[in-house]
Design brief:
- The complex is a heterodimer of chains A (196) and B (211).
- Chain A is built from three helices and eleven strands, in the order ααββββββββαβββ.
- By secondary structure, chain A is α+β, with helices and mostly antiparallel strands.
- In chain A, strands 1, 2, 3, 4, 5, 6, 7, 8, 9, 10 and 11 form an eleven-stranded antiparallel beta sheet that branches.
- Chain B is of the alpha+beta class.
- Classes of the chains: A alpha+beta (196), B alpha+beta (211).
- Chains A and B meet through strand 8 and strand 9 of A and helix 6 of B.
């Protein structure tokens, strides 16, 4: 690299670091437990991991035998997007958002052409500080408006040093789904989710 | 709290009946909608008695319409919901509107159903036009979900209890609790969580201690 190119690179680096310094440090402040949870997931930004279903009911057999991959794909000050790929199905993305009251989990469902599925953006907000390793997301009013049956949904996300778990329990039914991802071995990043 | 509705005879003319007698095409159409509606439609007099109910009331609560109209409406409301129902009723009578108001109504079999209401007054007829929807199933689902959330939160709190650093004796493996009492591992965990123990013998102990 010649001297002028090196100078331009340094200038560019300085500009980037200056810009970073002026970014807001994060979205709304969270409880310490939630800050820890947020940071633990964000630490994996850019990486993808393979998982396996550790529990599923009959309603979830469509995922059986499929390769399950989570990809902590986009992270900014207030949002983390985690596409969840089921085989070649790239319709699902978990979206975590910092809110004034805690953390919000939403499910962004897209068709292969990128348009939103009729059933999308369901999820819920945390009610309490939770634990640094686990947050609980009961179904919110929008979810209930999509279908009253979804009103009984409770999602949990867990992040441990070696493992990430996503779980859905639908109370009053046998619907339960849990998938765990091995965080000790990153896998090649999958293609972008539909609609990205 | 507003005064309860009086039980005086309802002298206000029931224009729905009058108009129905006129047999105008518009009224006939309204009657047809009234009869086929899945939701519960009603006209409540300012005296606290129902004046008109559609068939959905019978299907939902099990009472006949005659039975429902024979007593003040408030007698069908769950005792715990009566005060706020009467407050809402008074508010509507004074010109307000009810939007998504919820209360419980008695069924013929003694159970209660959750209803969600929209209502608006009709001062010229001395009545309140209302639409109610049975939301019992979604209420039950909501309660089940809240119960699960409480259980998950409690389970997390228990996990947190065991994440503390425990002082344990290097020789006998007893754990010292907050009151400086040394307890067995089984005793400590049993007291701090819902975990229960069953006792057995591992293969190495079987070899060294038993055989």
């Amino acid at each position: 690299m010649n001297r002028s190119a090196h100078s331009i690179t340094l200038l560019a680096f300085a500009a980037v670091t200056t810009a970073c310094a002026t970014f807001p440090p994060a979205g709304p402040p969270l409880a310490p437990e939630q800050e820890a949870f947020w940071a633990a997931i964000r630490a994996h930004c850019g990486r993808a991991y393979e998982g396996r279903m550790t529990f599923s009911s009959a309603a979830d057999t469509a995922m059986a035998g499929k390769r399950l991959v989570m990809h902590v794909r986009e992270c900014n000050a207030s949002e983390i997007k985690i596409p969840f790929h089921v085989g070649e199905d790239r319709s699902r993305t978990w979206v975590l958002t910092r809110t004034e009251t805690g953390i919000r989990l939403k499910h962004d469902h897209r068709h292969v052409d990128g348009t939103s599925d009729a059933i999308t953006w369901y999820g819920g907000d945390t009610r309490d500080a939770g634990q640094p390793h686990t947050q609980i997301f009961p179904a919110d009013p929008h979810t209930i408006s999509l279908n009253p049956v979804y009103g009984t949904n409770v999602w949990t996300m867990e992040i441990h040093p070696t493992r990430f778990a996503y779980q859905l329990i639908r109370t009053g039914t046998d619907r339960r789904f849990r998938v765990e991802f091995d965080l000790t071995r990153a896998v090649p990043a999958p293609p972008a989710p539909w609609g990205s | 709290m507003p005064p309860p509705p009086d039980n005086a005879p309802d002298t206000a003319p029931d224009i729905t009946v009058t108009a129905r007698n006129e047999e105008s095409p518009g009224r006939r159409l309204e009657d047809q909608f009234f009869d086929v509606a899945i939701d519960m439609l009603c006209l409540l007099g300012y005296n606290g008695h129902f004046r008109r109910l559609n068939p959905a009331w019978e299907q939902t609560l099990g009472f006949t319409r005659e039975e429902l109209m024979s007593r003040p409406f408030i007698e069908f409301v769950h005792p715990d919901d009566r005060d706020r129902t009467l407050s809402q009723n008074a508010e509507v009578r004074q010109g307000g509107k009810a939007r998504s108001f919820e209360n419980r109504y008695l069924c013929k079999d003694g159970s209660y159903k959750w209803l969600r209401w929209n209502a608006a007054p009709q001062p010229e007829t001395g009545g309140i036009y209302s639409l109610a929807r049975d939301i019992t199933a979604s209420k039950k689902a909501e309660e089940d979900r809240e119960q699960l959330v409480r259980e998950l939160q409690a389970a997390l709190a228990e996990v947190q209890t065991l994440r503390a650093i425990l002082p344990i004796c290097s020789y006998c493996r007893k754990i010292r609790d907050d009151e400086n009492y040394w307890d067995t591992v089984e005793g400590y965990i049993s007291r701090h969580t819902a975990t229960q123990f069953s006792h057995g013998i591992c293969p190495s102990c079987m070899a060294s201690q038993v055989e």
